[in-house]
Amino acid sequence: MVLTQDRSKRKLSGGRYTVQRLKRKFRMGRTPILTTIGKTKAKSVRCAGGNIKRKLQHAEKVNVFNPKTKKSSVETIKTVLESPANRHFVRRNIITKGAVIETSKGKAKIMNRPSQEGSINAILLE
User: Fold this and answer.
1) Is the per-residue pLDDT at 126 higher than 80?
2) For site-directed labelling of 123, which of 11, 14, 44, 73 has its Cα 20 to 30 A away?
């Protein structure tokens, strides 16, 4: 069955909305890419308007920004410590925006969406 980006067919009360338009291909969604820790692997996907989106499937490196020294460095990801998206993502080492990871420099918080942007950027926590 196809995932769609349309609104729900039902109201909060349980009643049905009247259909405003038929299904369209541009409303079609894709299954989410859950970025995990591992040897770096990404795939390119064609998007609307012929644009290319790079989806990160696995990653082992992260761009870490240190707010005290105002310097960035590339560090190795050790593990995921906590995730606001889903508590079960921690056990599976799935990296999402807002997740706190353990790096070689310490704890860092992910500030971008790796499964949508093709890289991982984080800010070092104290």
Assistant:
1) no
2) 44
Q: Which residues contact 64 (CB under 8 A, 6 or more apart)?
A: 72, 73, 74, 75, 103, 105, 108, 122, 123, 124
Sign for the pseudo-dihedral over CA of 75, 79, 82, 88: positive
Number of domains composing the chain: 1
**In this structure, is residue 26 part of a structural domain?**
no
Taking the CA atoms of residue 87, residue 78, residue 115 and residue 83 in that order, the dihedral angle to the nearest 10 degrees is 20
> Residue 60's domain spans which residues?
36-124
Residue at 56 is within a domain: yes
CB under 8 Å to 21, separation ≥6 — which residues? none
pLDDT, tens digit (0-9, with 9 covering 90-100), for 79-105: 999 999 999 999 999 999 999 999 999
Q: Which residue has the tokens 């104290």?
A: 126
Q: CA 79, CA 100: separation in Å to the nearest integer?
A: 9
Residue 83 lies in a domain: yes
